[in-house]
Specification:
Elements: E1 2-8, E2 11-16, H1 29-36, E3 47-52, E4 59-64, E5 70-71, H2 75-87, E6 95-100, E7 103-110, E8 115-122, E9 142-146, E10 149-157, E11 161-166, H3 172-183, E12 193-201, E13 204-211, E14 215-217, H4 221-233, E15 240-245, E16 248-254, E17 260-266, E18 268-274
Parallel strand pairs: 2-3, 4-6, 11-12, 13-15
Antiparallel strand pairs: 1-2, 1-18, 3-4, 4-5, 6-7, 7-8, 8-17, 9-10, 10-11, 12-13, 13-14, 15-16, 16-17
């Protein structure tokens, strides 16, 4: 059972190519949890299952969180998958399209895939699209209470849901404490990814991330896209900016008229190897 491991700014994924798993229609939740476990498995922030047949792109992709749930889209996951397609010769051109449940994107590879640009699609702040409970509206500067604290937040989707909390100062302790409550808050019927946002200047923001189904995360492409778009919608940044995260930096370009987002970031190959069936004897 072959696996391929990459990280994008410390956000690591395992690629499982269906051709290497002829007996698997798809990985089960139990298998995903074991493979992603840092002690009992290979260890990762998620599984990329593909390439798959696609109706709207050249390659299809499904993305699984380490708890076994499925994600609609992942910016870092897409960059990693694009690098894998190039490394494995599935892709023969440095530009190609990938279909995910959260939409079809275009990937452009530079430096043999070590740096990748992805057209992430259009950000929306509409409550019905994210989704956020309540009447139809753009979710901008609303209040939400978790535990002992009330935050002002904005919500957005770029194919997956995000709750962005702007604050003067942020740190990892804030994300670890309040991220779980925001992720599962009743306002978000499909749960949500959470970003705590600090604006540094008009060309730079900083975020701390709590990902739906994964927990505290060093970096995220979709989180960078959503947080940058919220900062732009609030008038705090320009249309080209750098997102700083504990794992590193991602460059974001925003079309101010449509809120289409281009994301550029690095990908690093970590390992290729073989999993043994014995690992699945343990339940996690």
């Amino acid at each position: 059972m072959q696996f391929h491991k990459y990280h994008a700014l410390g956000n690591d994924y395992i690629v499982l190519d269906p051709k290497d798993f002829p007996d698997w229609p798809e990985p089960t939740s139990a298998q995903i949890r074991v493979i992603c476990h840092r002690n009992f498995g290979v260890g990762s922030d998620g599984i990329l299952w593909g390439p798959l047949p696609s109706e709207s792109g050249e390659f299809g992709l499904r993305i699984f969180n380490p708890d076994g749930s499925e994600a609609e889209k992942s910016g870092n996951g897409l960059r990693i998958f694009a690098r894998y397609l190039w490394d494995s010769s599935h892709a023969t051109s440095p530009q190609f399209t990938i279909e995910t449940p959260g939409g079809t994107v275009t990937a452009d590879l530079h430096d043999e895939g070590k740096l990748i640009t992805v057209d992430m699609g259009q950000v929306s702040f509409a409550s019905s699209k994210i989704p956020v409970a309540g009447d139809q509206r753009d979710v901008i500067n609303e209040s939400i209470t978790v535990e002992d604290r009330t935050f002002t937040f904005c919500a957005a989707t770029i194919g997956n849901p995000h709750c962005v909390v702007p604050l003067p100062q942020i740190d990892d302790a804030l994300a670890r404490r309040y991220g779980p409550g925001l992720e599962t808050h009743p306002a978000f019927p499909q749960k949500t990814n959470v970003q705590f946002l600090q604006v540094l200047d008009r060309a730079n923001i900083r975020i701390e991330i709590w990902e739906r189904g994964a927990g505290y995360t060093l970096a995220s492409g979709s989180s960078s896209s959503a947080a940058a778009s919220v900062a732009h919608r609030l008038g705090l940044v320009d249309d080209k900016l750098t997102v700083h995260m504990p794992g590193g930096e991602i460059a974001i370009e925003i079309n101010a008229g449509t809120y289409d987002v281009r994301m550029t970031g690095s990908v690093t190959q970590v390992a290729r190897g073989k999993m043994e069936a014995e690992i699945f004897s343990v339940k996690v």
